[in-house]
Structures are given as structure tokens and as C-alpha cells.
Amino acid sequence: MENMVRVVDFHTHILPGVDDGAQSMEHSLEIVRRGVQDGIDTFVLTPHIRGDSDLVRLPHIRDRFSQLQERCRLEKIPAELVLGAEVLVFPSLPEHAEKYMHFTLGGPEKYILIELPFTQMPLYADHVLNSLMVKDFTPVLAHPERYLYLHGKLDLIEDWVDKGLKLQINTGSLNGRYGLRIKWFANKLVKKKLAHFFGSDVHSVHDYVPSFRETMKNASKVLGKQRCATA
Ligand SMILES: [Fe+2]
């Protein structure tokens, strides 16, 4: 049965030369190869989009996406690639939400990966996330465990999830890559069944630690395989 479960890396910076992730096509291909070896079937490609001015890069991002798909096909790398983005929250995002449709993952859920600043929660964040949900988007909050200011706000996280928001946990967080506090909170979210998607947040060949499938396997014992493995 295990082979029937899709393993989805929901958060990656693999596209070559579009953000602070992979800087060449060869590096992109090597990351995908390593991920496939690690048991990943599907990669959601989530380049950083930080403000409306980044929208002009959409044609470039799409070109890169097509080129990477084509190279994977030519080199017979059995990976499904899906184009998304990691969108940094900003106050007027809900009013501009339609422009960001390109970065949702398709389907009625309209999943869109949202990043918060690391230092402090902006006053407008709650309003923006709620407004997106009112507009029938499904915000997926990128690595909530890495925002230390959310560690004391489990009630707020649960309230967002009750309203429809999903959470994406970094597999590295569960393994202690970002320190013990983040490891503790990531595992707490899993135990509370508040983990919906997992991502490597990989930025380069060098930081691809081959533990994705193993980490998801462990989490699935707590969450149930279907909860954590499918996009
Ligand atoms: Fe990221």
C-alpha cells in the first residue's frame, strides 16, 4: 500500500535563476534527481514573490518552469512538477488576489503558499489571511514553526485552520535543522494534527538532506498517510 501514496514536496526553490534558489539548470536537475532518489514523486515549485513588482517576472518564471519540465522529460527523471509560488504577505494582497491566481495550484481549493516575515507578525497578517479565505482561496502558511512569535499563539493557528487555512511544515524543522525550539513546535503541530503539507524548502544542491520520505513516514504514523502525503 505504501507505494500508492504520493510523496509531495510542497515547498521548493528549484527553478533555475528566478530567486535565491538553484542558480543553474544543472543544479535544478540535480536537486530533482536527489529528491526522486529520496522518494519524492511531486515537487511544487515555489519561487519567492515579494510584492506586486515581482509579478512582471511571471513570464520568465513560466519559461523556466517549461524548460525544467522538458529537461526532466528528456533525462527521464520521473518527477511531476507543479508551478506555485511563495508569496510574502502584504496589506493589499486580498484586493490584488486575482493577479495571484497564476500561483495557485489549480483545482477548486486555490491553494496559495503564503510566507510571513520572520521577525514579527505584521498587524495586517490576520486580516489578509482571513480575507483570502473569504475570497475562496486556501492560504497554505509556509513553515509556521519557524515563526517564533507564533509559538505562543496556538489558539490563533487553530482558529485559522478551523476557517480553512492549511499549514506546511518543513521536514528539516522536524529533524532539528533550525534548532530545538523550532523542532519542538513542528512536532507539536504534527501531534495536534495541524500539519497538512510538508516541504523541504530546498534552495540548493548542498542543502538537500535525503530524509524527506523518512520524515514523512514518521509523521504519517501520527497523522495518517492520506493527511500528509497528497497535494
Ligand atoms: Fe521558501
As for the number of domains, it is: 1
How many helices? The count is 8
Helix and strand composition category:
alpha/beta
Number of strands: 9
Rg over alpha carbons: 17 Å
- Mind telling me which CATH architecture this is? Alpha-Beta Barrel
At the fourth CATH level, what is the homologous superfamily? Metal-dependent hydrolases
Strands in their spatial order, largest beta sheet? 3-5-6-7-8-9
**Helix content, binned percent:** 25-40%
Mean pLDDT: 91
CATH topology: TIM Barrel
Bound ligands: fe (ii) ion
* Main β sheet profile: 6 strands, parallel
Instruction: Report the CATH C-level class.
Output: Alpha Beta
Distance between the termini: 18 Å
Strand content: 15-25%
Structural description of this entry:
The chain is built from 8 helices and 9 strands. By secondary structure, the chain is an alpha/beta fold. It has a single domain, classed as TIM Barrel. Strand 6, helix 3 and strand 7 form a beta-alpha-beta unit. The chain starts with 7 loop residues before the first strand and ends with a helix. The C terminus is likely disordered. The site of fe (ii) ion has 4 residues, from loops.
